[in-house]
């Protein structure tokens, strides 16, 4: 039997996840959708020809007897409310990042899930499902480059819309590194600092872009992440791990190499949807399979909380220019 999914939010990623759950993945069926823009929700249903019911709001959808599990793909500030409602209804929920826009919001979700007594939440951090990051982690874990000492990373988007503010470089963009680098190193952050290089003339007046985030982990590894969301040339994710005896780099996505017009070239992708297309498939199939097997796994509410605690510290560091401590409490036994 296919898992009956309800989707809240039919914007860019909501539409893409509805498509993959309806057309690409196994054992799932989108039976319900909603959005504050109901016309858009109805159009997505019609365009994808999925015959799902359009619900008036997220709460009606969560509490529908036809919906077995939820995908929350609405704007970040609405995630906390919907994930808490899903837990209250006892339904598994895949929530796009960020789990909540503040650490306090994530903590409430962690507490609700622990009180429920069984994992229901998977956070949409897809990079641990990316083939390249998995290969990089396998090299680190094998000991081939010794202990990781330093990481040099970059998260570059070609451009962003006018609603994108300076703190979103952390809550919306860096949040992926905050999650995946913890996972890659099996370590937690202890301090952060944010510095601002010369501003790009391509960034809108209200946005400080690029930014460099400096992280220190409990084991003493130092990480620099360049976040540059108006780089113009492509969607480019870089990660280099410098170890005691060698260096390992995140592989580039596979592209045909061309010799043409007196140039040797490889195309660079422009869109996050394409860069991580396979990782999104794998993460959502894992959610569907996990729910059907009664065992939700993958990035947990605790991982969402840990990333948010670091994100809150980064925002404080953006504003103060100081080194800010990251005060993550001990991980509860429930999440070990
Ligand atoms: P979007 O702006 O294209 O779509 C968001 C949709 O949510 C809109 O259609 C909006 O009307 C709807 N919405 C907002 N509040 C709502 C509410 N209370 N109830 C129902 N619908 C509501 O944004 P996008 O790019 O699709 O992002 C959505 C979420 O997914 C964000 O949290 C974003 O950070 C995350 N995301 C994750 C990505 C990843 O790589 N994992 C990539 C892109 C987005
Ligand atoms: C977007 O919301 C994503 O999650 C993308 O993966 C990220 O690269 C982009 O910066 C965000 O705005």
UniProtKB/TrEMBL annotation:
InterPro entries, per database record: Gfo-Idh-MocA_inositol_DH, Gfo/Idh/MocA-like_OxRdtase_C, Gfo/Idh/MocA-like_OxRdtase_N, MI/DCI_dehydrogenase, NAD(P)-bd_dom_sf
Transmembrane segments: none
The UniProt record lists the keyword Oxidoreductase: yes
Domain of life, source organism: Bacteria
All residue ranges annotated as the Gfo/Idh/MocA-like oxidoreductase N-terminal domain in the record: 4-125
Enzyme Commission number(s): 1.1.1.18
Domain Gfo/Idh/MocA-like oxidoreductase C-terminal: 137-326
One of the Pfam families matching this protein, by short name: GFO_IDH_MocA
Catalytic activity, as annotated: myo-inositol + NAD(+) = scyllo-inosose + NADH + H(+)
Sample GO molecular function, one term: nucleotide binding
Keywords assigned by UniProt, alphabetized: NAD, Oxidoreductase
GO BP terms: inositol catabolic process
Family: Belongs to the Gfo/Idh/MocA family.
Record's function text: Involved in the oxidation of myo-inositol (MI) to 2-keto-myo-inositol (2KMI or 2-inosose).
Stored HAMAP family: IolG
PANTHER family to which the protein is assigned, alphabetical: INOSITOL 2-DEHYDROGENASE, PTHR43593
Subunit (UniProt): Homotetramer.
Name by which UniProt lists this protein: Inositol 2-dehydrogenase
Organism: Pseudomonas mucidolens
